[in-house]
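Subgroup meeting minutes
Present: P.N., E.W., G.H.
Scribe: E.W.

1. P.N. recapped why we're keeping a running log of single-chain structure predictions: easier to compare across weeks, and new members can see raw inputs and outputs side by side.
2. G.H. added today's entry (81 aa).
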Amino acid sequence: MTSKFAVFAAALALAGTAAFASTDVAALDANADGVLSMEELAVAYPALTADDFAAVDTDADGFASAEEVAAADEAGVLHAE
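Output recorded in log:
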């Protein structure tokens, strides 16, 4: 019983950090160009819409930099749903 609880607790703890871990630009950057396309960011955030991506892409260059992703994550723009 205790081991089942420990596994459950660990799973809950990891679920709470999924959004933070998912915003690791290097891990999501499939073509290694240093920025994320909407498609690359959608791997971590499947519910990402074009409007969401536009809110992340504050310089409107069509890509999300690590700084833009971090700011959007902190501001609650990105939702891991």
